[in-house]
Amino acid sequence: MTWGETLAQRRSALGWSQERLAQQLGITRQTLIALEHDKRLPTLALAIKLASLFDLSLDELVKPLAPDSIGRTDHWRWFGAKPSFPTLVVWAKIHDATVVVPTMLLAAPRLPDALWNPKSGVLTPLPSARDPQRVMLIGGCDPYLAWLRDLYEEKRPGYWMEPIRLSSQAAIAAFTQGLLHVAGSHLFDASTGQYNLIDFPMAVTRLHYLTWDEGLIRHPEATAVRQIAIREPGSEAHSLFLRHQGSISWAPDMFYSHQSILEQVQHHPDWAGVGLGSLAATCGLIFEAWAQESYDLWIRPENLKSVWGRTLLEVLASKALHGLFSQIPHLALSGS
């Protein structure tokens, strides 16, 4: 039984009309009809009101929101280590498993799907829970993934994209393990001078996405640089630093996103950083290009015909995305 069917059944058991329940909740009858037909989900505030009216706990009320597979631990796959503390998570269906991702790993966190209780080993769906088959996980270090997400969700209402902040190597590893729908990378092969020559154990399709300049970022008021902010091992930015380390005497310190490096240099004139020229230029920082890199997306061929796969291709080819990137220095769409 769906959540909407459960709502309608409990309303009928009380002998209440749709108009009466809508008045009790402070919503319109049209909104209640949409809830009972599973065309929308309740807000947390509305779910609390319903739980009180029906004399139920919130857990009992939202239980029907859980997909069948969520109750079967053999069908869960955790993205990263299973947390040992209560954790808010989002979920997505990849192949036959439900991948569960702590919201702290997301590049742009928002409403969670469930709460993980490590003591009971239970995932409790929240009123904001979504159908995991309509959630797409994309991993990589592209700082503009939130733009891609917004255009994707505008193009296909009722489907969601969740970006996970990962280094190129970590994104490729997660994609290979079936923990991502799409992975992004800009890995340099020193023997050929080319990017993203990756030997996957399965068939993949490469989508040429962005070309960007990466190099040294400095504060315009810097008089003496003492430290340099670099990305973690497994990222191409880290490898780029190692290839130029001989010309740098500053002490390195690791950061885990392009944005965090940018903010460090912005607020500390005695720091430099290895990062993207597009971010530096739009924040008034000095940039010295070290490499022009290809940042590509990887997807399984069979997923190109899925609803979410077709939507992704439409967004990558859209005028809206081209318009967003066309005015930014050191950055260009490379086309699919």
UniProtKB/TrEMBL annotation:
<dbReference type="Pfam" id="PF12727">
    <property type="entry name" value="PBP_like"/>
</dbReference>
<feature type="domain" description="HTH cro/C1-type">
    <location>
        <begin position="7"/>
        <end position="61"/>
    </location>
</feature>
<dbReference type="InterPro" id="IPR024370">
    <property type="entry name" value="PBP_domain"/>
</dbReference>
<dbReference type="GO" id="GO:0003677">
    <property type="term" value="F:DNA binding"/>
</dbReference>
<dbReference type="InterPro" id="IPR010982">
    <property type="entry name" value="Lambda_DNA-bd_dom_sf"/>
</dbReference>
<keyword id="KW-0238">DNA-binding</keyword>
<protein>
    <submittedName>
        <fullName>XRE family transcriptional regulator</fullName>
    </submittedName>
</protein>
<dbReference type="InterPro" id="IPR001387">
    <property type="entry name" value="Cro/C1-type_HTH"/>
</dbReference>
<dbReference type="Pfam" id="PF01381">
    <property type="entry name" value="HTH_3"/>
</dbReference>
